[in-house]
Specification:
single chain, Jelly Rolls, 2 domains, 1 helix
């Protein structure tokens, strides 16, 4: 009887100890799998960080190259023009329903030495640093309803107000003009923009113009 009892105790101990060993082995395996996954993820993260660093470096190089190309293009344009920079353009057709913040496109180009004026955008882009003179004139055609109206325009240098003009105050055609002398750096932009306009006023064709040239 004692022998059977002892055998039963040994068997129970073996089962419990074996289960414990099995659990420990399973935990060790899980720990090993976790560490392997951790190292794999860390390796992948390091690779991504390295790739991002390379991309940032490439991006900086591209920006530097773009700046260099833009600068070279401006210098090349300046050499080609030989400081001969001058333009004059008119508005070809009437512009009804003028809106505030509307950039005027003087699309009928008469002179464009240096090709610095773009009639498609109405913008003069300075090819070389210097002092320039600009002049613009605005004609308000007769309002279709016989009412008075005004048009206010601004000369903008890189979006900053550099001159202002107001045209019209009655029901007959009227014109006005203004000039400005500006010191520009290569790449600066100059254009004419409407700041305010009556609903019945509109800009007349051929009588409105925009011009500029380099003084020195």
């Amino acid at each position: 009887m004692a022998y059977i009892f002892a055998s039963f105790i040994l068997l129970s101990f073996s089962l419990v100890f074996g289960k414990h060993v099995e659990d420990v082995n399973e935990l060790e395996q899980m720990r090993a799998d976790t560490m392997e996954l951790f190292h794999s993820l860390k390796k992948e993260m390091n690779a991504i960080q390295m790739e991002n660093q390379n991309l940032r470096s490439d991006n900086e190089k591209l920006h530097e190259r773009l700046d260099t190309l833009e600068s070279a293009s401006l210098h090349r344009l300046a050499r080609q023009t030989g400081s001969r920079v001058a333009f004059y353009a008119m508005i070809r057709y009437n512009i009804p329903h003028v809106n505030a913040r509307q950039t005027l496109h003087f699309d009928s180009v008469q002179t464009n030495d240096g090709n610095a004026y773009n009639p498609g955008t109405g913008t003069f882009t300075c090819p070389e640093t210097g002092t320039y003179m600009f002049h613009w004139s605005i004609n308000q055609a007769t309002p279709t309803q016989g009412l008075g109206g005004t048009i206010s325009t601004n000369l903008l240098h890189n979006g900053i107000l550099s001159g202002a003009l107001q045209t019209g105050d009655n029901n007959v055609p009227s014109s006005s003009s203004n000039s400005a002398v500006l010191h520009l750096r290569a790449g600066d932009r100059v254009y004419i923009q409407v700041s305010q306009a009556s609903t019945d006023a509109y800009i007349g064709q051929t009588y409105s113009g925009f011009s500029g040239f380099k003084l020195f």
